[in-house]
Fold each of these.
Amino acid sequence: MKYIAEVDGLDFPVEILDEHHVRFGEEILEFDLAAVSGQPLYSLIVNNESFEGYVYPDEGSWQVLLLGRSYSVNIEDEREKRLRRSENGNILPDHEFTLRAPMPGLAVVVMVHEGQLVEKGQILAILESMKMQNELRSPFSGTVVRVRIKAGESVEQKQVLLSIVPDVSSPSKH
Amino acid sequence: MFKKILIANRGEIAVRVLRACRELGIKTIAVYSEADRQALHVRFADEAYLLGSSPAGESYLRGDRMIDIARKAGADAIHPGYGFLAERADFAADCADAGLVFIGPKASSIAAMGDKAVARTTVARAGVTIVPGTEGEGPLRDEELLALAPKIGFPLLIKATSGGGGKGMRDVFSIEDMPGLLQSARREAKSSFGDGNVYLEKLVEGAHHIEFQIMADQFGNVIHLGERECSIQRRHQKLIEESPSPYLADDESLRQRMGAVAIQAARAVDYANAGTIEFLVDKDRNFFFLEMNTRLQVEHPVTESVTGMDIVAEQIRVAFGLPLSRVQDNIRCRGAAIECRINAEDPYNNFMPSTGRITLIQPPTGPGVRIDTGIYAGFEVSPYYDPLITKMIVWGETRPQAIVRMRRALEEYRIVGIRTNIPFHQTMMDTYPFISGKYDTRFVEEQFSMIDAAENRELYLDIAALMATLVAHGQMEHRSQVYRRNDSSSIWKWFPRLGRQNR
């Protein structure tokens, strides 16, 4: 199987040859990968060099925590890569934005109501978690179309709080 | 000595106090909320009592229940740890009324230092310099504060009158920003402390936050155990502490003067037991009294490491009525100690709190490393309590050795299942201002960035790419195998064997 791993804007072609060999660019490397105690913590020995990293999926990409640094890796197999290139990669930001709770907590204040116009950076709600109050702000100017929480309610992580449709005159839209 | 002590706290500090009790041969009573049934402090204790449901207001803040349990269980003393009831004068007084020894200062000392206005007036009267502010005016309305602000001068700080831990605190750089910041500070103060009153204080620029550990017995003996540098802070929350302070360095005369003032401030409120005097030291080495914490501090282990004194054991002895085990001349600080507070926060995502189940912990061990913790594999980090989950303290013969050791230990520490700020600490240990000891309280927020600081480090883009690809490939392979077998429920059992399975 052939993959292309993209990290920091660099593409690394990776072809898995068998369970201990991989073609990495031009080179053929010998490797052994083991999950430590069945956890997403991986010990990788590659050409006898030993590495340990914490690898977990995050919103479509893979996060690798390795030697005190976090890397965001996008992996596609060749077919996916070609497909995406043919779409010339243009996604318009015209769909509505859904504000999700970045962490579990308590909605202390909901500052907006449905139909309200909001500015970019305006505070939408305040979420309290671990004794700190966190201000959740609007990423752009637009109109609040749905509010799904009330002040005083507990929310789960990633729970939908409200949605905003970008302003039509917003310069971010072509 | 006491026979039995109730520990009115949770997490790493409850475990810390428990350890001191065990070493002194004292029986321990743990209390816990529903969320903490399986917590380490509950499992390590001789007895354990349920307090109530998970929110602190229904459990760890219920002084009345603590006292009921202590009496029922036959405890002779209560150790409050830090946070929760530790600085509540009414709780200390209630303990005394119930015939229980509160392991801490007298209620009157807590009250005197807890009200910032009284504290500052008291120490100012004793001849200690304080940072200019409005706390002496009593509770003020927004209009009054806005009128006073230009007289103090910008930048300034809005602080909660009953505050602590950076909550209800805002930096103000101009009068225009002030109304909004006042509003948010009051709101946070109200929800954290039940009191929305705030005051203004001059923001000392280029300041170092340096504090002195005090120990006092009931015979009027007061000593200090040297200083701790606590200037690595974010949103006024300390992240790294060390002793000795690289800013004071070998300025022994300044250290002696500050230590003497700290003792003087403690005497001014007739202090007994462990306490901390916090100072701000400006760029010209002038120092100002900030406040006194009338309790054990989170960062007490750095002082323990350099002085060799078990501060918690000493607290217990002193509370029992024994004299201090050492005199000032016998306090010698040796080597250098650094503490990193490991929080359940994601440094790559604006330090957002992270909750969930910890699935694996691999703690560092080896020379000079100490871990104070309340977590274990399987522990659920809940949103109910503080994000501090564990503290790592290292000691070295010199500060450079301590830094190298901290780097080594941070790299060994694996906490899987939640995000932690370990990468923040790793980055900090590689940052020039930290290594050279040239940092002040604004450093983290104004000059430090995870991305810029990481630029000097060796990159492993290729290894990261390879590792992620192998993991992703393994998961896709297993998924397709499982689908072929038409048994999607067994998908999870394939994960542990990732990468080693025959095709």
Amino acid sequence: MIDDDQTMSTPNQSDVLIIHHPLYFDGKGGEYFRIWIVNVLLSIITLGIYSAWATVRTRRYFYANLKLAGEGFEYHAEPMQILKGRIIALISFTLYSVSSALSPLLGGIAAILLIFAIPPLILLSLRFSRRNTSYKNIRFNFQGGWKEAYMSILVWPLLSLLTLGLLFPLAQVKLKRFIINNSRYGTENFVFTGTFGDYGKLLLLYIAIYVAAILQLALSLTVGASFVGTTVFILLIYGGFFFIQPKYMNLMYRRTTLREHGFESTYTGIRFVWVWFSNILFIVVTLGLFLPFAKVRLTKYLTENVTLKMKGSLDDFTAGEAETVSALGQEVGTAFDFDLGIGI
Amino acid sequence: MADSRAAPIEGIFYTGESSQGTQAVLDFDARSGRVTLTEVMTGSAEESAALVKQPRKKTLFSSLLTDLTIPPRLANTRRRLALGNGAAFVTQDNDSIDALAERVLALSRLSVGDATRGFSGNWLHRLESNRGAVAACFVAVIVIASVTIIYGIPIAAKRIAYAVPQPVQNSMSEGTLELLDSLYLSPSELPSEEQARVLALASAAIEGVGITSYAVELRTGIGPNAMALPDGTIVITDDIVELSANDDELLAILYHEIGHLQNRHLLRRVLQSSFVSLGLIVMSGNVETVDTLIALPTFYLDMSYTRDFEIEADRYALQSLKDRGLSVDNFSAIMNKLEDSLSRIGVDEDADKPTSRASRRQRELLKYFASHPLTSERLALVEEYRD
């Protein structure tokens, strides 16, 4: 647990003073287990209908325990909205499975349709999760449009594929800009300042590790040490992934600002590997019963490595105008909702 | 709480316009039935001292208690009372809010029909905070999940599979043979008289079963292998023909594949995996398809269900041999040979999953993850059908 109090004691002194407020998570595994097991049972008994209420209760618990500067976040979605979204998603999923099982052609068509549905679904999901999240009684929002969604989610990745990855860093910047710059807290937009160079460097690092892995494999195969070569190869590939992935997360937070406030992020590969793999291991060993504890552990890890660099005060954000979205769109979006997509 | 005034509840008031919160206390007056929010002045000791001399209490909000929406309790997370127009009162004092909520319930009982926005109850919280209830939920979940996986899903899939009309089943494998031909298979390289002999043998076996829609195709390219497509096409490879010492051994293989078709195994497998995925998605409330936590159990369960189908097909083959007065030893002979060639080539009989070249002991350990029952298990099955 991070003690937040000493950093709280210096408000109103100077506007340039930067106070570090770590995000922290107050949830407890045992507490969440009780909520979870009741949720699971009620979902089973109601043949899944209750799962919408279960989701809202779970989110409310996780959001409320996610704290920044002593105050929790809040989740406001209504279970009925989520239930409608789920029903639509379930029908689509069933149609897709049945059609692809019945005929490869139908399945192919459905798969292509699905690809074109992804950007709007992500857009709706972002809108839904942002608008239903608040902090200090001020709601978040998402204002991205359809065109930008298609460009950043479909077109730019396709371009980076066509240029053999040359434009990949740019595609990443475009996607982050879409997600972050369109997110707002009250009337203030988040701003992402990451550049092609930032992502290019990480990509080069990736490539360097892969090239090194392949070279050493080729070398050890020529000298006949194939076992050692393969082992080191696998270690390098996986190690490289877990070494670089946290750097991407850090980059995203460090290049994000909210008005005069910035973020610091301290994810490391080794901790990430430990939390992730031990979670999977415990879940398998306990036949799934560790799931709630794993979720709490992962959330703790994911939140407690992020710090808000507060410049001045968090008290002067103003609420944006309440917006109404088309009910259907919002509900479909909910089915593809991310867990804990708070703030950024 | 005999007193008409409940203890004040401390919390933070937000206007709904800005992120600035005000320290406030909520008071409830039972006589008027009103709740009142009053600002609490905070500041340095000096300011507090000044306050004592000159107490200024600013009323932030006031309304009838029955007009408030009190959310149900969730562990010990903070409660947010919506005050209209985006304004809210947030407090950690859950017990006092619960006491207030009880009053709302009592009041709404007095004035029927008036409290449409009243308190919806804390029954979930009471369930979650009761050890015995949680333990009971736990046991119930385990029992229901086990029964569903072991009995519910297979039985439901079987019922549905037999209700699916044959044309729909045929369309399931539409283009599959063509796809396999373009990827892995090539036309049989057996001498044409040998091909004719095998096909005649197969036709006789199929006619003996009484279903004319089944057809046998000869191919080569994937080692010793046989497979059955849902439209009734049975594919046999050259290697398996060469592996069988006589026609009766080949018949054992054919009957195994016919057993898959007769029992609609492929359709049942598709249905069962769909049920498992759907069930897990519903239970975890997670639709993201690339989720290890869902993919892993789905995969293991699929493997385990597939093993059951293999055993069912084995039983069908053994029964068919027995019914026709053929020795069940033919079945064990060909299975042994398949196992041997398997461990040499390192390819599973159905070529859908590469098998590791691990030793028999390791394979023994891995038997729950294998889709085909081990041959030693199959041999035990054979003994059941021996006279």
Amino acid sequence: MRPLTVSRLFVQCGILSAILFCVMVAALKFGAVHVSLYGLGRDLLLYILGKTTEISSDYSLILNLRLPRIFLGVLVGASLSIAGTSFQALLRNPLADPYVLGVSNGAAVGAIVALLLEPRLSLSPEIASVFTPLGGFLGAGVAITAVYFLGRREGRIDSNTLLLGGVITASLLSAIIILLLTTMPSSNVRGMAYWLMGELSAVPSRPLAWVLRVGFFVAAAVIYTTASDLNLLLSGEKEAMHLGVDVRRVRLVVYIGASALTGLAVAMSGSIGYVGLLVPHVMRMIFGSDHRILIPASAFGGAIVLVMADTLARTIAAPAELPVGAITAIAGAPLFIYLLRRKLA
Amino acid sequence: MSATRSTSSRTAMEASRAANEPRLSVEQVSYAYTPNPQQAPIFTLEATGFQAKAGEVIAILGPNASGKSTLLQIISGALQPLSGRVLLNGFVTHDLEPRTRGQRIAMVQQESQLLFPSKAWEFVMQGRHPYGKSLRFETADDVTIAKNALAQVGAEHLSDRWMDQISGGEKQRVILARALAQQPLLLLLDEPTLHLDIGAQVDLLDNLRRLAAENRYTVVIVTHELNLVGEYADQVVLMQKGKCLRVGAPASVYQRDLLEQVFQTQLTVEMGSNGRPRVNILPGA
């Protein structure tokens, strides 16, 4: 018997954060412009100390372009993975993830509508810069609320109905996306296609980045307070209730928290699939299914995977950039099939 | 051993208060299940009542769809009765806070399905969940209590085994150990012998009888195993189609005509040398 202790939790999270740090440094180093590790370390230190004028132009470019993008990757990857872990436990379904539930398509519809409306509304530059992600966030919110009500039967949430509701909503929304895309000016279609496949190149403006950070930490913290309740929910709602879990409260808190994380992630980066589905499974194989470690481990794992995938997307066909969602899907689909067959065996 | 101490002091306090009154009092509870409020209920449980003391084993007996599990859910506080109430040491079970309820009432369900496998000790440790705040880490006390719970059902050797790799009988013991780790006053079991062979069934009932006597649990078990109930229960609540037909000691409830009518089969009832009734089914008679 070796129950999880706070010290073991910290050690495991420490190891994961060290790996994440190494991946972030590697992501800073690799790209269209080559830089040395020494120069990177020196200028990173200057950057942290605020002596930005002493940084050489090449490195300044890297720190100003790559670093915010890496941080965005960390937050989006962590958000998607925490949301996936939470939805899988909440719905007691290993296939549940933000995308199966139709959230990403909801966000896409919201973003496209915003993109179509933007030229017609004379918006100030500040609002125009956040208009598309805002549309995406609202679209995600509307989709997840619709799926929630579709999943209610006799006044309570039925996991299977909810998942099916998600699948149906997603397919309806993807039809709407195709209709909207055909009405778009062709100049916008390419950008939109990248957004639909997921990309991290559109680094959010400063206020938006703060919204993302604060939103992430609040939602993640709220979900984490239910970690041991989620462990019991894996055995079913009735059992959890008999073991002292306030099932209604936990369901509401986790549903809202995970939806907010998904909405924020999708609004910033478009549809990046497989991270929310696969990272929790891999982390569960390494750390077990105790959510007190699984939630932070998935957050680190999601961040590591997405930063790595984005580095690949930037470098594999440099100077051209591939959408990171395509990379995660190409790597994720075979891995998913492997895990599925391994489980069946 | 603060957790053990607090539980034992709580038990002592409640035991002294309840010295002269039954621990569990089911007061004429009824229930109606209606999937659509505009339609007539598709299942009703008519007013049912009985009382039980600490250390007693009560069996709710009846054929399929007689309302046994519904009655058990009402006793557990998970379902609110349409009328009547269930009192555990004077408190209405449905009104208890989820955590308090988890400290006083443990439920062993028909099947405990795991989405992702866990080790037996992790499963038993879940029984300590009602004793902490939302985000809790288990203490040394919790580990001791979980180990004792496994030992009480003779399953210490299963501690490090995966739940999906042990037999049905072993799994049932671990599930029972989790309920014991809750240190409840009331132990409820919904058809716990369903997938067990006869040896494992007897073993489980032996364990329950002993635990009820040693730990002063009140045990309520839902089953349709006539002979096991006849052998092990102190009281039987006989049910049919949502009606409570009889409450009493097995020897008084086990009457041939009554059982034949309830179970729709011909049978004989004999009194064993220990004063407990034995039922023989007469196939094709």
